[in-house]
# Entry
Amino acid sequence: MQMQFRGVKLYAMIVILSVAGGLSAGDAVAEGAEVSAGKAEFLTHKCNLCHAVPAAEIDAKTKSEKLKGPALGGAIEADFGVFAAYVRKQGELDGKAHKKEFKGTDEELKAILDWLAEFEPAESSAPSP
Ligand code: HEC
# Structure
């Protein structure tokens, strides 16, 4: 009985707290959704065919060392516009073209980058030239 009473009280407190902090709690949920959306986009656009994300325990699917890109994780250093052009094969990054053309939207790409930025930079597993 005692326990149950406490449970009810705790529940009431949580309700009060979440109403009081309604706005920030909502923001946190939206942020969380965005991050997992980034992972979903990463998989939907098959970035994991060539890129591992070790921090998220995602392996590169290809066995081909020629196709394989560097392991990803951490924020992308390039400017978003430059990077977007690069993955769309409309531009180069450090004088190199991307292997695969990204056909999604800027929002999808941003979600992917936001998600990657959550991690510590990955140690590159790119084959040395
Ligand atoms: C067919 C294989 C392939 C696919 C699919 C692919 N990539 Fe890549 N990616 C590469 C390769 C290879 C490189 C390295 C290019 C180079 O340095 O010559 C690269 C480079 C990159 C880089 C730069 C990494 C660095 O440290 O310079 C990023 C970021 C990146 N890819 C993100 C993505 C994202 C996001 C997707 C999905 C939308 C994707 N890639 C899909 C092969 C692929």
Remarks:
- The CA atoms of residues 50 and 64 lie 9 Å apart.
